[in-house]
Design a protein that fits this description.
With 398 residues, the protein is mostly helical. It is built from 16 helices and no strands.
């Protein structure tokens, strides 16, 4: 249990810094450019390194010592933050933002499969659901504190000061992770090489072709990541900053409320969910589509717009958290431990491939309907409900 606690504290510190920077850098760009389309495009491009990082991280998790790998990734993020702090006043903002965001997403993509593959080694089977709930809860708490404190620190210290502070967070996390000792955390027999990593990914692909239920689950998540999640990740900042004309602190509050919904979902997953596991995750995903449409309706009533967005976003994040815990627990119970890291990474990438496309598309849509964004959210909710209904009819076991 000591090793699990160290993993959790390392996650708390590292993901706080990552969440703060992923919030602050695009916000600075949005403020200076005033373009929702540029904002959506930048966040979409930054996602691509994350997908590549997940694939590589899954293979590395099965071949390397996991604790050491987590520490090295945090040290790499420290260097990236310091570089960005030194270059923020001398380099063009757009390419610097793309480079730093891409690096942050890539490192996080590498990091998460390593953590997921470590849990079955430090927790017993009956503790696994609670362990996944804790990890998801940590991620959500950091997504809450990152934007909330990041917005306050951005106003108080400026972007350079925030970069240096987050660099210190990553260094502290690395120090904790060097103290972790994971039982049976042994590297693979084959030497680490690019050809070996590619061979691992080919083996994962062959394994997944014989697992239609897992592929159907990935297809369902891909639909959600195309139609629902980008409507919120791109829409909330654009709506708060440009449509409602709120301050950075108000945007930080909005992000914090969304994350608080995720915290509630994590608590429910670690308590109620362990006693009453879900047979299907589709009802939760369908509910997210309905809430997206409800957000569009709320925008039509200006006095209720900001409060309505907060309340409905809270509900969306609670449902999304419950589904994530269910999804990763299913993988850890079904996939052999020797392949868990790379198979989890492959499925996550398959599910997330559509998200950059969705982010770019919603950036353009919110730019086009800048005076009437309710149309975008109503369309997103309606279309996602239709697509998920079709997927449910084809795969009723999901």
């Amino acid at each position: 249990m000591k090793n699990f606690v160290l993993i959790v504290f390392g996650q708390i510190i590292s993901l706080f810094g990552n969440a703060a920077l992923r919030f602050a850098l695009p916000l600075v760009l949005l403020r200076q450019s005033g373009s929702a389309a540029l904002y959506g495009s930048v966040t979409a491009l930054a996602m691509l390194p994350a997908l590549a990082g997940m694939l590589a991280g899954g293979a590395l998790a099965d071949r390397c010592r996991k604790a050491r790998l987590m520490a090295l990734l945090d040290l790499l993020t420290t260097g990236l933050s310091v570089f960005a702090a030194c270059g923020i006043t001398h380099l063009p903002l757009l390419p610097l933002t793309l480079a730093v965001l891409g690096g942050l997403y890539a490192i996080q993509g590498l990091y998460q499969p390593v953590v997921r593959a470590s849990l079955p080694l430090v927790l017993e089977d009956r503790q696994l659901v609670r362990g996944n709930a804790v990890i998801q809860l940590v991620d959500t708490v950091d997504e809450l504190l990152g934007p909330l404190l990041g917005s306050l620190l951005l106003e108080a210290c400026g972007i350079r000061g925030l970069l240096l502070l987050c660099g210190g967070c990553f260094a502290a996390s690395a120090g904790l992770e060097f103290c972790i000792r994971i039982p049976r955390d042994l590297p693979g027999d084959a030497p680490l090489s690019l050809s070996g990593i590619l061979a691992d990914l080919r083996d994962s692909t062959r394994y997944l072709t014989g697992q239609p239920a897992l592929l159907q689950l990935a297809a369902t998540m891909a639909a959600v990541n195309l139609l629902e999640i980008p409507a919120l990740t791109v829409g909330i900042p654009v709506l708060v900053v440009q449509f409602l004309h709120k301050s950075d602190a108000a945007l930080g509050l909005a992000q914090a409320v969304l994350s608080a919904g995720g915290i509630l979902g994590g608590v429910l997953a670690g308590t109620w969910f362990t006693r009453h596991p879900f047979r299907s995750g589709l009802p939760l995903l369908s509910g997210i589509g309905g809430v997206c449409a409800a957000m569009g309706l709320v925008l039509l009533v200006p006095p209720l717009a900001f409060g309505g967005l907060l309340a409905l976003g809270f509900a969306v994040m609670a449902a999304a958290m419950l589904f994530n815990v269910w999804f990763f627990t299913q993988l850890q119970q079904r996939v052999p431990q020797a392949q868990l890291g790379r198979v989890t990474a492959c499925l996550t990438v398959l599910a997330c491939l559509t998200q950059p496309l969705g982010q770019a598309a919603y950036g353009v849509l919110f730019q086009y309907w800048v005076t009437n964004p309710a149309v975008v959210l109503l369309g997103a909710g309606t279309l996602s409900a239709l697509v998920l209904s079709l997927l449910a009819a084809q795969a009723p076991s999901l």
